[in-house]
Automatic annotation (TrEMBL):
Function of the molecule: Catalyzes the conversion of GDP-D-mannose to GDP-4-dehydro-6-deoxy-D-mannose.
Protein name: GDP-mannose 4,6-dehydratase
The NAD(P)-binding domain, residue ranges: 6-346
One GO MF term: GDP-mannose 4,6-dehydratase activity
Amino acid sequence: MTKRALITGVTGQDGSYLAEFLLDKGYEVHGIKRRASLFNTGRVDHIYQDPHTDNQRFQLHYGDLTDSSNLTRIISEVQPDEVYNLGAQSHVAVSFEAPEYTADVDAMGTLRLLEAIRFLGLEKKTKFYQASTSELYGLVQETPQTETTPFHPRSPYAVAKMYAYWIAVNYREAYGMFACNGILFNHESPRRGETFVTRKITRGLANIAMGLEDCLFMGNIDSLRDWGHAKDYVRMQWMMLQQDAPEDYVIATGVQYSVREFITWSAAEMGVTLEFTGTGVDEIATVTGVDGDLAPHIAVGDVIMRIDPRYFRPAEVETLLGDPAKAKKNLGWTPEITAQEMCAEMVREDLKSARRHALLKTHGLDLPVSVEG
Ligand code: NDP
Ligand code: GDR
């Protein structure tokens, strides 16, 4: 029988890859999208199916994690075998600006979904995946981080996600629900939101390469992260719900790099070498070499990265490194794409869009480049 999945956050990075993955597996996939004044389905438009055709296997429903009655109605209509709760205000820096909204969506939204499943009497049918996060470790207590490392969240986002983590555990223990937390470390792709650090770098440097921007303004580039590819990580989200019994898993690569290294790789993908000089807010990256023709607007001596303290966070997570041993042992999961391969893919895609943009500009169509991040 065809399995039915409901994905919150289907229009986001992970939601779009997961929807593709589940459709390939033969699932009927339902996604919740928010009402917005502009189209917000760019990441899933390629799998859109005309609602007037028969056997539609991908359907979108208007909804919001802040709206219990709406969530209950959608779950009642869909009767999902699996719910993937990927929807969230997912930007850590933004959560300091909008802490209450972040708690409402990320913490209470999770509770609303679990309650809807229970209220509808689906707690024995519907399996639940919660998008938990390495941000729970925050001020890290041990390295590498595992499923048993104590949490110390460092942002309103992380605190909200900590509630979501424990409420999923609680519904598992209290009501016997099949609820799992995937404690996912940072994962990226060409579909990553433009204001997360990796995409900000690949897109920013591609724009500089094509003469659309002059300089990349960054926050804490000493920060260390364990970066994987979103495609590898959504596969694991599905695997977690196919276990015999619900358990929580750390999903990571087990390798850590700095933001500065990610900038160096991204530039190198365009044939550009950099030298970092100065310290703290005075650190800059100067071009020391340009090889090939991928970056026609970058020259030796250009300063293409500066620090802007506005991107520092009130409380920072300096270092994260995950140990995915349990996922490997129990589920046979290992990441297939390295951080460097992922960076190369992101640079290639961002160079393509920067070239298109630059071409339009030469024909007088000068679209604004949004650089806020
Ligand atoms: P994105 O920010 O790309 O996507 C978030 C999704 O949530 C979007 O579809 C967004 O809709 C939707 N959303 C936001 N607010 C609401 C709301 N009020 N009601 C319903 N939907 C809403 O995140 P990712 O795909 O990167 O991450 C997926 C999940 O995994 C998130 O929960 C994130 O916190 C978590 N996570 C992500 C990691 C990562 O490195 N990517 C690591 C660990 C956890 P819209 O498109 O309209 O904005
Ligand atoms: P993070 O991701 O906060 O780890 O949360 P992000 O890419 O935003 O930051 C990673 C690190 O880079 C530093 N940094 C900057 N970050 C941004 N966004 N912009 C900058 O200019 C900049 N300069 C330096 C940050 O300070 C940070 O240390 C992501 C999100 O996807 C969460 O939803 C998810 O839970 C975690 O990853 C795991």
